[in-house]
């Protein structure tokens, strides 16, 4: 089993010292920097938007993994690519034209991701799986950091892994929400490739050491 891709979520960073936290991630074993964009409509919270993503990009030396928890994400794809997004993930539940959105993201030369909420069945992605570079399985209800991990996630990861294999796709599986050192090995065993960790990293005594521990599970 290879090492996971670690994508710390700056939603849990110190917003008053964002540059400092991004520079810490640059020096860490993190692979990507996960940026949660929330609009207060699709999810019951507002995080930050294009200008803050641009500010993060000014200091980041790792690829930005941008997760759009917003309605009508198609309207903002190019804008986020222009402020540094290497990966752009849209929610299955937030767009009426998923295939078109995926094609638009790929045309921008970004990895195309699809996120699914805890209640969404992974089978719904079967028709588009060959066009998806990564699936972000939400292991908490989206909108807030620091929530409890939903145990049904392991089953969803295994089901999605089967769909990927059956369709001979190269899709990566990302887990977002409540990831910690206890459930990370179980997620990897189930078939996860990418671990997003927010509070577990940034609220730890030594965030760099916590990232290293996740990287080396």
From TrEMBL:
One of its GO terms (biological process) is pentose catabolic process. It holds the Pfam family Ribul_P_3_epim. SUPFAM superfamilies: Ribulose-phoshate binding barrel. The keyword Metal-binding applies. Its EC number is 5.1.3.1. Keywords: Carbohydrate metabolism, Cobalt, Isomerase, Manganese, Metal-binding, Zinc. It is an enzyme of class 5 (isomerase). One of its GO terms (molecular function) is D-ribulose-phosphate 3-epimerase activity. Coiled coil: none annotated. Catalyzes the reversible epimerization of D-ribulose 5-phosphate to D-xylulose 5-phosphate. PANTHER family: RIBULOSE-5-PHOSPHATE-3-EPIMERASE. HAMAP family: RPE (MF_02227). This is Ribulose-phosphate 3-epimerase.
């Amino acid at each position: 089993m290879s090492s996971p891709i670690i994508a710390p979520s700056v939603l849990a960073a110190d917003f008053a010292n964002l540059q400092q936290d991004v520079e810490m991630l640059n020096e860490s074993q993190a692979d990507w920097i996960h940026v949660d964009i929330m609009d207060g409509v699709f999810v019951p919270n507002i995080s930050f938007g294009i200008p803050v993503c641009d500010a993060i990009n000014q200091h980041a030396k790792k690829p930005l993994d941008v997760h759009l928890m917003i309605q009508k994400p198609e309207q903002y794809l190019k804008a986020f690519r222009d402020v540094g997004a290497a990966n752009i993930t849209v929610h299955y539940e937030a767009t009426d034209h998923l295939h078109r959105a995926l094609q638009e993201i790929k045309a921008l030369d970004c990895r195309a991701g699809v996120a699914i909420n805890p209640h969404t069945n992974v089978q719904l992605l079967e028709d588009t799986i060959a066009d998806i570079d990564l699936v972000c399985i939400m292991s908490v209800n989206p909108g807030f950091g620091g929530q409890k991990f939903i145990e049904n996630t392991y089953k969803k990861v295994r089901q999605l892994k089967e769909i990927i294999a059956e369709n001979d796709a190269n899709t990566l599986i990302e887990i977002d929400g409540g990831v910690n050192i206890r459930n990370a090995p179980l997620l990897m065993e189930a078939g996860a490739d990418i671990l997003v960790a927010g509070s577990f990293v940034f609220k730890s005594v030594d965030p760099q050491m916590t990232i290293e521990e996740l990287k080396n599970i």
